[in-house]
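Anyone have tokens for Peptidase inhibitor? Sequence:
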Amino acid sequence: MLERIVRRAAVPAAMTAALAGGALAAAPSASAAASDCPAAMVCIFQNVNFTGRWIGQTDPYRSNVGDYMNDRTSSIVNRTDRDICFYQDADYGGDMLMWIPARSAADVLVEGANDRISSFKPCW
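Reply: yep, here.
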């Protein structure tokens, strides 16, 4: 019921803006940097350039990154002092990508890991 009410309320607003000659546009993503990940944490971001939803934790054991991040990671930051291994499957299975301390990547496509991470933990 709530979803239907929200949709109905949005349609007149959009039509009013269009009739008034205005244009609707999505706001650009806020810029971010690897330094936005707090010290001593591993952070994974949904989008490139450290934007979108993210997970950051000091305990670098994550057997499942959760429904909203599973197979949706596009940026990584390792601000720990340990090598972190990122895995394609939950429970540390499948292909693995090792990430050294203090390393970050605004786009993990080059490493073949874009939208493929499901778990991570220290490598050793």
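Strands lie at 42-47, 51-57, 75-78, 84-89, 93-99, 104-105, 119-122.
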